[in-house]
Amino acid sequence: MSVAEPPPPDEQDAPGDPESVARAICLGLLSQRARSRAELAQVLRKRGVPDDAATAVLARFTEVGLIDDESFAQNMALAQHRDRGLAARAVAVKLRQRGLSNSAVEAALGLIDPDSEREAARRLVARKIPSLRGLPPETRTRRLIGLLARRGYSPALAADVVRAALADELPPEVADNLITE
Using an 8 Å Cβ cutoff, are 131 and 168 in contact? Predict the structure, then answer.
């Protein structure tokens, strides 16, 4: 069997037309995971795709539904909230980091209601409490509230959830004195 020879170097390295390059880059990225239009535009800029070619490809991909920032924002918001336990405030930060518009972010945050936020905070605390069992109550309280604060929960919600969780394990007067708002 003979092995096919590679094309001459000038043909092998020749860039395609800018729109074909942009399409190939976008399709490759979108085959890995969903991305926002802003993320794709940033990659195209970094790879040296001319702005007019990038704009044309991104517009076409949006038109045919390969790029849908609203749907992407909603799916990401629910996943970050449900899987990572992030509060709506932290989810908003993540969405804005992806270059999503304020309207897409606000629509996605509308899917996270206060009850689901409280329940997500309870689950986080319930998972963490067993690893803190041997620590003094003040340390446990501080670490649990810190955990919730890092996930974007308000101080009032964090205090309520931690107080309720520790009330099951500590005498009420001790649990109430640990958390002052």
Answer: no
DSSP the chain: -PPPPPPPHHHHS----HHHHHHHHHHHHHHHS---HHHHHHHHHHTT--HHHHHHHHHHHHHTTS--HHHHHHHHHHHHHHHH---HHHHHHHHHHTT--HHHHHHHHTT--HHHHHHHHHHHHHHHGGGGTTS-HHHHHHHHHHHHHHTT--HHHHHHHHHHHHHTTS-HHHHHHH---
pLDDT at residue 89 in the model:
94
Work out the mean pLDDT of the chain and round it to a whole number.
87
pTM value surpassing 0.85: no
